[in-house]
Design goal:
- There is one protein chain.
- This protein is mainly α and about 160 residues long.
- The protein contains 6 helices and 2 strands.
- The protein has helices at about 5-40, 60-70, 80-90, 100-105, 115-125, 135-150; strands at about 95, 110.
- The protein has a two-stranded antiparallel ribbon.
- The longest helix is centred in the N-terminal third of the chain and has 39 residues, at about 5-40.
- The radius of gyration is 28 Å and the shape is globular.
Amino acid sequence: MPAAAQHRRTRTSRLARKLAVAGTGIAVLALPVIGATSASAATPTVTTATSLGYANTLDGWIQASLQVMAQNGIPGSYDSIYRNIIRESSGNPYAINNWDSNAAAGTPSKGLLQVIDPTFQGYHVSGTSWDPYDPVANITAACNYAAQRYGSIDNVWGAY
C-alpha cells in the first residue's frame, strides 16, 4: 500500500474517532436535558391498595393502610379502623358531611374516616395521595392524627 494511502486512512481514522468522541460528548450532555424533561413530566408514585397487592375494597384499603402505617410507625388495628369507618362513613370513600359545625365553617368532613382538609393536610402520610377521598390516604392521615391526639385509632370510640 502506498504511503499516501496509509496517511489518508490514518487521518480519516483520527477524524472518525474525534467525531465519535464529540458525538458521545454531545449525547452525554443531552442526557440530563432529556432526563430532566422526562422526570419533570413524570407523576410521583402514589400508594394504593392495588399497588400493594390488595383488592380495591374496604378490606383492601384497610390492609394497605395498615402496611403504610407500619412503615411509618403509626399504631392501629384492623378492627379499630373498620369500627371507626363504619361509624363515620358506612364504608363510603366519597362520604361528605355538609351539615355539622365543620361544614358550617366551610371545611366539611370527607372520606372514609371523615377528616377535614386542614387535618388531612397536616397529618398526610408521605407516599399516599393528597386527595382526601383516596381511601388509603384518608385512613392513614386519620390514623396518624388519632395516634398523635389519642395514642392510636384503637382509643377512638366516637367522633374525634
